[in-house]
Structures are given as structure tokens and as C-alpha cells.
Sequence to fold (163 residues):
Amino acid sequence: MSTNNRSTNIAGHLIDTRILRLFLCAVIGFTTSALTPAHSAVTSAASPEDVVRAFYGWYLKAGLPLPKRSNLATFRKYNTQSFLKRATAPDVDSVLFIDAQDLDETWANNFSVSPATIQGKTATTEVTLTGQKVHYKLDVTLRQENGVWKINGVKGKDWKDVS
Fold:
């Protein structure tokens, strides 16, 4: 094999390798960029009301579980880290997610969420719990974290025993 042919083969191999690297970088970059916005769009598209409705739908039907290893991912999905920290502090004597110590089991199927008021990266909405024994309202504050609405505080009001 002549020196000229060997140079051509080496040059061709280098070009092929560069093309392959560029192709792989493009595919990896496209895949990453294509997946990230889609994932972000799904999570950031949830309105404050959707987040609150989804959390309380799960939380009330689950019987007001405390955050623990088996359900922590669900709590983190809907609540800010700072609110979870406050809710699980040892000196807290009520359930901060409902701002109460007692519950009405029928709330799970009888609650509504009002339209949120949004101001920048914070939002507030009201949850009305209409149980057979107790009617109760929650002012729920949310904060955006990484473009996703999360519950950051709950304040109960208007507790009414109806049984």
C-alpha cells in the first residue's frame, strides 16, 4: 500500500469518526432537549388549583398519612421542602396539611378548590371540605419551585360541626 493511499484511509477514518461523534452528540442533544421541555411542560402546566386538587384527592382518600419513606415522593411532588420540614417538625401538634387535629372521613369525596389568585411566583386558593360531620375551609398558599406549583402553607378557618 502506498503512502498516499494510507493517508487517504487515515484521513477518511478521521472524517468518519468526526462525523460519527457529531451525529451522536446531535442525537443525544436532541433527545435530551426534546424530553426536558416535554417533561417540564407537563409538570409546569399544572395550575395551582390542579396541584391542590390532586394533592388533597390523594391525601384525604389515603386517610391523612404522615410523610414517610414509602410516600415521601408524593409529598415532595405537591409540597415545598420548607413546608414538609415544618409539617414534620417534632413540636407540631396538628396536621399542617389540614391545619387541624381531627378530620371527617367524608371529606375525601366532598371537597372543592376555588380559582387561585396568582401574584408572581405565589398563589392562594381555598379548599372547602364539606363532610357529614364537619364543614371546614383551608386557605392554601403555593409557591413555584423550578416552574412547578407546590403547596407552601395551609391555614384552616370556619370549622363548623354539622352533625
Remarks:
- The two ends are 98 Å apart (CA to CA).
- Residues 1-45 form one domain.
